[in-house]
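Build the 3D complex.
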Amino acid sequence: MSMAYFEVNNLIVHHRTYEGVETVLDIDHFEIDKGTTFGIVGESGQGKTVLALTILQLLQCPPGEIISGEILLDGIDLLKVSQRKMQQQIRGRKIAMIFQDPMSCMNPVFTVGKQMLDVIAKNRGLKGTEALDFAIDMLGMVRLSDAENTLTKYPHQLSGGQRQRVVIALALCCGAEFLIADEPTRNLDVTIQASILLLLKELQTKLNMTVLFISNSMGLVSAFCDRTAILSGGKIIEQGNTSDIILNPQQAYTKLLVEAASLSNKSAPAHSGVEVLLKVEHLKKYFEVSKGLSKNKQQLKAVDDVSFELKKGEVLGIVGESGCGKSTLVNTILSLFEPTGGDVWFEGQNAFLKKKKTDNAFKKNVQIVFQDPFWSLNPRWFVKDIVAEPIDAYGKLKGGERLSRVNKLLEMVGLHKEDAFKYPHEFSGGQRQRIAIARSLASNPKLVVLDEPTSSIDVFSQAQILGLLKDLKDEFNLTNILISHDLGVVNQMANKIAVMYLGKIVEFGPASEVFNDPRHPYTKALFNSIPKIDKMGMENIVTLEGTIPSPINPPSGCSFHTRCANACEACSEWNPYPIYVDKEHYVSCILYEETKEE
Amino acid sequence: MDYNHKWVQIKESLKPKIHNFRESLFLLGRNKLTAAAMFILLAIILTALFAPYIIPYPEHIEDAVNMQEKFLEPSKEHLFGTDEMGRDIFSRTLYGSRVSLKTAIIAVALALIIGVPLGAIAGTIGGVLDEVIMRITDVFLSFPPLLLAIVFVSTMGPSLNNAIAAIALSWWPWYTRLVRGQAISLKERKFVQAAETIGTSRLKIIMRHIVPNTISPVIVQASMDMGGVILTVAALSFLGLGAQAPQPEWGLMINVSKNYFPDIWWYSVFPGLAIFITVLVFNLIGDGIREILDPKTRKK
Amino acid sequence: MPRYIVKRLFNGLIVLLGVITITFFIARVIPSDPAAKWVGARATPEQKAAAVVELGLDQPLHIQYGTYLQDLLHGDLGRSLNSKQEITTELANYLPATFELVIIAFLFAVMIGIPLGIYSAKKNGKLLDHVSRFFSIGAVSLPTFWVGLILQLIFYRMLGWLPLGGRISVEASIFSTIPDITGLLILDCALTGQWNLFIDALKHIILPAITISLYPIGLVARMTRSALLEILNEDYIVASRSYGIRETRVLWRYALKNSLGATATVVALSMGYTLVNTFLTETIFSWPGLGSYVSKSVVTLDLPAIVGISLVSAFFYVILNLIADIIIAMDPRIRL
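Done.
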């Protein structure tokens, strides 16, 4: 029987704390053939990173404990190798790792160049100018332009995408044939994620590397990996060829993962209401930033002339990548920020009139559920106080009445009366999000903003929370603004979609139309960057060249023209204005008429 | 359970808090050193509380003069020997724990009362108010606390109470800086932003959101400061600026004893040992508290 | 970077001004009758009135403040109520002896405290770590003046190895000329090659030096340990290891640089405490430094002298903090 290149057998890893012993990993067997890509999919806390660290013997023991098992690389059992030998021969030389968060895995007080040269010196034995040339070559391989300059920079001076490329370059400098990529695109925007994925695939093919690709998304794995294993609770519950798993998932958990990654074609239907609840007119929010100690104040145009109408009972989904201004837009509407210009009308009243009475009325009617279920609840408060905070702000109920209202709210979101006297940390992420939802309903609001409500919770709870949100919306005739980078989520809930780029809305229209037939070049690029689980492999991923420009210095004319394939000269001179596809759907692109196929 | 009943509500609110407290004690006790320190601290506290009743020579605390018995070496009758007035040093040392603990608690409490709200306000509200408070704090922080206390007491007149006040005045800026730093990072937390969206008043945000979340580092600092304050009071008394004769304060005893040193060695050694053990115990416990409160050293 | 230094210097100046103002007002505003002290207990009312004018105490407060500031700018700290001497001169006389001790404490703190902290962090959780933690915490719990007494008890009274106090033995000061180049006795003896004197001075300085060094060593060791532990848990350290970098290199080249800021801060902080502890220790060892001057002034409530000493100490402390701030600012993330 031919031995696989990489094999893990009977690996049991414990985590020992004063509370007891927890089994973090319990893996029977999986193997990887040389030159192939193998994916491990599971959610946060399921043991994926522990596996990666254990392979390199970098796990902190204590509190970790490797009870048994063998990890075979080319016949050598890595668990039996001494630390010294691991450092000299295995780490770097045979196995290299790409870490999850490029910001935290690079030493902030050393330049990129210094860190690379050290790695090159140890693993390739090069010094001086030879090493320097080698470093520049590596940066070239990860497609970082201006390599010499990059070498002199510190990690915090690079953008997220650049940092990730440097981390990949560092791994390449090691020269290992086996690469462990631990969620390499975790914190990246969708468009950048696509380019990193393509880069990794290219390198893997070119250098004939074996890659262990760790991810929490079936979508990514479907594009990148030949074979996949599903990790749940430290155990591999299913493994096989990626295509088999996706087409024919056996376990319930696997099915959920596959479903979460597929964009269903059914968007929410268009809304039939007429009454306008929220009207945003030419809203602008600029921040003054000064660079360092210089006196020059520059303007960061976070929200740059945004207008839309939201009807009662509608759900508006706002999508866009980091820096597009969706959070600032929402915060300004919620009057957490003072707008630099423009108006917001709520139920016919101007929301920014600083009168206490209208202010209160506005705040009572507009609430928000945040993304982070842990820090959005005060860890030192009882759940009952957290949920009742909106009630307390207007001082109406006391004592028993207050408590019974809290209980009712808790039951509405699927929690129990007894939970009122507990602390947030006693609940799971999904349950905490329910508490946050209960709080948002406490003042009987008309508009509830949902800021990435399911991004930080596990996939089991995601579906439940989304269902809950839909039910509550129907029951109380709520209006929602939904922000998400997960198009699947937006697709399920939103009637209308606004696509934002650099503070402007580039496309706005009914969800079904925008999804199935995006018109704006950026919208098209955005949707095409996402690995589609039904179309496996990398061929269908389209990358967007360039990086998102800085909102301090946006490009002239159309802010997207620097990266647009269709751009012409006029695009850099003229500001785009909304061109209406039909009554409710517009596109902000001056070239739109011309590229209209129909 | 009828939740409408007020007592039930109060009881239910207290249950988790008591549970947390017991859990903290348990965690603290896991480190053998900290556990030992806690026991010793308990012994010191009990001594301080019941001193007048348990010391062998209660009349020797302040005024007794017994010149035939002066400068007796340590013996069965006088465990720590006697001083220049014939007073039993053992009794006075034990009673001194009362003085030291009292000064430590009052001084730290005063410093907290001044420092914490200032820091919370400066950090949360920011702007000009923050600048002003920080400049004032910086000025105070530019003195080592002992030096500042010396200056204060020199001008206020030497006495134990003035020493306490001086220490509180020297110590509060440390808490202000600590709490301000915490408040600045807490401001960015989503639950504070949520409170703003909800419409909670600024005052309430500071008092109920910000301050309770700064408690952990403040507790760590305060427990270690208890030791520091005791050292400072002793130093002030040693200089003649704190407790005045015939108060049974440890630093003062050493101050007087240095004139007869090294012949009457027991007069210096034992009070100093008392200071050392008390401060050590506070520092060990403070360090233990820091270990369990620090999220990084807890279970990952 | 230079802009940052200027900004911090400016800050430091403001702080000093605040210190000066506070000490001025404390010294003037509370009733302590400096004029009476100046002329002594048996002066006549006319002499006292003359003293009031001489000391400028009859002027309105803001004029006194202005005069005070002006004098300060000229380096004039006024006169001691006790000795009638210029405070600046007196300070200059007493300063070198104190400086000698403080420098040694600084050297010990850095050369013993930091390695101790590093060692403790490396052996985290093991027995040696617990032992060194206990010593560090013990070191900062000791009352400095008491330690001095205990050391004297052991090494003078019981063992007879070392002298009780003073900087140099009485015979030496009678029979030899004491060199005075830098004011730092040990250094001066070494520079002039007077090795007997050198040994003598060394014997005298050992106990006070150990006494005041214990606190900074303990503090620096503790803080270095915790700073390093925090850093060693960071992802970038794990990443360095994953690239195969040697453990010693990871520790000494990578982790240490990250901890520079925290270490510099704690060294500066500990020096502030050390200065005051030195004052206390000097009284025990009859060390002719600022400490003796302080106790004399404090006992007689010689306010101008106390204020003068405080100003000098604050100045020293501000400079130290400035240096620490500069080291912290070398962190590239703070590049402005």
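Chain C touches chain B through 56 residues (CB under 8 Å).
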